[in-house]
Structure formats: structure tokens, C-alpha cells
Design goal:
The chain has helices at 9-13, 17-46, 51-54, 69-77, 80-112, 117-126, 136-144, 158-165, 168-179, 183-191, 196-204, 209-225, 228-233, 242-248, 255-285. The longest helix is centred in the N-terminal third of the chain and has 33 residues, at 80-112. The model has no long low-confidence stretch (mean pLDDT 86). The protein is 68% helix and 0% strand. Helix 5 (80-112) packs parallel to helix 8 (158-165), helix 5 (80-112) packs across helix 12 (209-225) and helix 5 packs antiparallel against helix 14. By secondary structure, it is mostly helical. The radius of gyration is 25 Å and the shape is flat.
Length: 291
């Protein structure tokens, strides 16, 4: 059985075919590298320039005035340590709630098969078609005066944690992985007297580490990069996230120091992706095949 490729082997065998293929492939790779890494390079390099060089036209590709002190100044002037701790607190709190509630929802839909489970899953997936900005107003009114308990959640971590729990995409990923767990394994545990919770804790979760890692990364990055919702629900400067705090304190700050602060804010998510990129791909494809 022959392997299908982008270019037929007969064309590659022609004179100059391999050379042309490698040239085109190299150009495409260079182009995509510039498109994706260009803004990141501009962000990091602009944080090393002085204020005049940053706004110079045309911009300089390599910093002519190397001033790494912009980063330490941004850390102190904008109190990034407090903002960073706030963001970590919100992100890992949201992660804890998502792991508990989303895993329980996905396991119920996959293995316990409740009445109207498919309809519930369908309605969950339908919410992915709704733009996030459409939900801002009803969510804000909800946290402003929570029904039944009648409490105002503004300026509290619950305003960040509770809306992040309802993540249909993560529930779908978890359910898709749980569907690939062999039923024979769960039946054997049931015969030995294990209940649904014991099966989930002792069998399903230990073999679900790849997808749990992916959901964890998505949960943390989702809170880390969010801007509009924390800006609306956390008006107190001492409780703001990193992105909102930098925006609130940007007035009067030199543009090179502001860019240095933005670079620091973007760095953790880039490091997480570079470290766990293999885990992300393996987790997303782990439930694709059964057996």
C-alpha cells in the first residue's frame, strides 16, 4: 500500500524536483516563523529600548539602546508581584473547581449514562456557538446579585471561579477520553465490589493523566489571558489580575516600561506551552482510538 504525500513521488524524482520542494518548504517555514514569532520578538526587544527608540519611525529591528533595567522598573512601578500572586490565586482556584466539577460531569455523561444525557451534552456543546461577549451582561448581573442566596460576588474570587467552571469544551474533551476507557475494566472493578466513585478515583483518573493535564493547562491559561471579565468584576486595584492591573496602572508610565510589563505578563503562558507542548498534543489525541 503506497503512502499518500503532498507531492507525488514521480514529481520529486524529476530533475530539480527535490531541490524545488525543499526551497518552497523552507520559504513557507520561514514565513510562518516570522508571522508567529515576529510580534513576540518585537514585544521582548521593545522592552529593552528607551522611550524615544520605541516610538521611532521606522522602528529599529535591533535595540540601539540596551536598557534591561526597564524590566526591573516595570516590576517595581506596576507592583507586578502582587498582580502575579492574584492571578495565580484565581487561576489555580479555577483549576481546582474545573477538575472536580468538569470531571464529575464528564464521567457521569460517559459512564453513568443519566436520563437525557445526550440532550444535556448537546445543549452544552451548543453553548460553544455563542460568542463569549454575548454572555457578559447576564453573567455580570448574576454575580452582582446571585439568585436564591442574594449575594454580591464582585471583588471576590468567586466572580472568577464560578463562571470558569461551566466549560463545555473541557467537559467534551474529558468525556471523549472517558469513552475510550474499556468497559471490561470497569465491569471487572464493579464485580470486585467497587462503586462508581471508587472506580473513578482508583481506575479512571490514574489513566486519564494526559487529558487532565490538557484541561489543567486550558483552565490556567483561560484565566491568565482573560481581560474583560476580571476588569468588570474586580474593580478593586488590590485584587486585580495581571492584565487588568497593568492596564489600570498604565497612565503616566513610559511606553518602554509598559511594554516590559506586558512581556513579563506574557512570559509564563509561553513557558507553559513550550514545556508542555508534547503533553498537550498527546492529551488531545489520547482518546481518539479505542482498544
Amino acid at each position: 500500500m503506497s503512502t499518500r504525500t503532498l507531492i507525488a513521488p514521480a514529481r520529486l524524482a524529476r530533475p530539480g524536483g527535490k531541490a524545488a520542494y525543499r526551497i518552497v518548504l523552507g520559504l513557507v517555514l520561514v514565513l510562518f516563523t516570522l508571522v508567529f514569532l515576529g510580534p513576540l520578538y518585537w514585544l521582548a526587544s521593545s522592552g529593552l529600548k528607551d522611550a524615544q527608540e520605541v516610538i521611532r519611525t521606522p522602528p529599529t529591528l535591533v535595540p540601539g539602546t540596551f536598557t534591561p533595567g526597564n524590566y526591573s522598573r516595570a516590576w517595581e512601578v506596576m507592583d507586578l508581584s502582587t498582580l502575579l500572586l492574584n492571578t495565580l490565586y484565581y487561576a489555580f482556584g479555577a483549576l481546582a473547581f474545573q477538575l472536580v466539577l468538569d470531571v464529575a460531569a464528564a464521567y457521569s455523561l460517559s459512564k453513568l449514562r443519566p436520563v437525557l444525557g445526550k440532550a444535556v451534552l448537546g445543549m452544552m456543546l451548543a453553548t460553544l456557538m455563542i460568542p463569549a461577549t454575548v454572555l457578559v451582561v447576564p453573567q455580570y448581573l448574576t454575580v452582582l446579585d446571585v439568585p436564591l442566596v442574594e449575594r454580591n460576588l464582585l471583588n471576590t474570587p468567586w466572580a472568577i471561579w464560578l463562571p470558569s467552571v461551566t466549560n463545555a469544551f473541557n467537559i467534551f474533551l474529558l468525556k471523549r477520553f472517558f469513552d475510550s476507557v474499556p468497559e471490561e475494566l470497569l465491569d471487572a472493578a464493579s464485580i470486585d465490589g467497587a462503586g462508581p466513585f471508587r472506580i473513578l478515583w482508583s481506575i479512571v483518573l490514574p489513566i486519564s493523566r494526559p487529558i487532565l493535564g490538557v484541561v489543567s493547562i486550558f483552565a490556567v491559561v483561560g484565566v491568565w489571558k482573560d481581560f474583560l471579565w476580571p476588569m468588570l468584576t474586580l474593580p478593586d486595584p488590590g485584587k486585580q489580575t495581571l492584565n487588568v492591573g497593568i492596564y489600570s496602572l498604565s497612565n503616566g508610565v513610559p511606553v518602554n516600561v509598559l511594554i516590559a510589563a506586558l512581556t513579563i505578563a506574557a512570559l509564563p503562558t509561553l513557558v507553559v506551552f513550550l514545556v508542555f507542548q508534547r503533553n498537550i498534543m498527546s492529551g488531545l489525541t489520547a482518546g481518539g482510538l479505542k482498544g
